Amino acid sequence: MLAALLLGGCAGGNGSGSARPSEDGAGIVDEEREIDMIKITCGARVLEIELADTLSARALADKLAEGDLTVSMRGYGGFEMVGALGFSLESRDERMTTEVGDVVLYSGNQIVIFYDSNSWEYTRIGHIAGANRDMLEEFFATTGQTEVTFSASDGGN
């Protein structure tokens, strides 16, 4: 009985939560269930990605709410780490110049973390606050190939 009460409290939503339009104008964001950070782990190292207010970022957070995702990431072009998600997310690519710490979706099914800048068409997922090239190269411990785990994080909220 106690377990049912505890699980019922976490199941969320009696329909009374507040909702607002997303910034990209493509849907409604339920603020009561909103995850605003994604935790990324590489070995014993951990960083947090602050999510952008996009449908793709929300869809990724929803997927991670179901369980962790391990992605094999590899260095590409001397400015990014890229890895296949194993599934596709709706994307709304826009031309942008990325900055160190930007996290984007490429081709709807690849996640990219930048340790330098690049101009291309991507869908914004989020940003690693305070990131710099040295920090990200140390985090990945390589610009070759490495396993990275993404998981839902409440950002300490």
Instruction: Identify the overall geometry.
Output: globular
Subunit organisation of the chains: single chain
Please trace the helix and strand order, writing H or E for each element. Answer: HEEEEHEEEEEEHE
Strand numbers in spatial order across the main sheet: 3-4-10-8-9-6-5-11
CATH architecture: Beta Barrel
Distance between the termini: 28 Å
Average per-residue pLDDT, rounded, comes to 81
Question: Taking Cα atoms only, what radius of gyration do you get, to the nearest Å?
Answer: 16 Å
Percent strand: 35-45%
Fold topology:
Blueprint: H1 2-10, E1 19-21, E2 28-30, E3 37-42, E4 45-51, H2 55-65, E5 69-76, E6 80-84, E7 94-97, E8 102-106, E9 110-114, E10 119-127, H3 133-140, E11 145-153
Antiparallel strand pairs: 1-2, 3-4, 3-11, 4-10, 5-6, 5-11, 6-9, 7-10, 8-9, 8-10
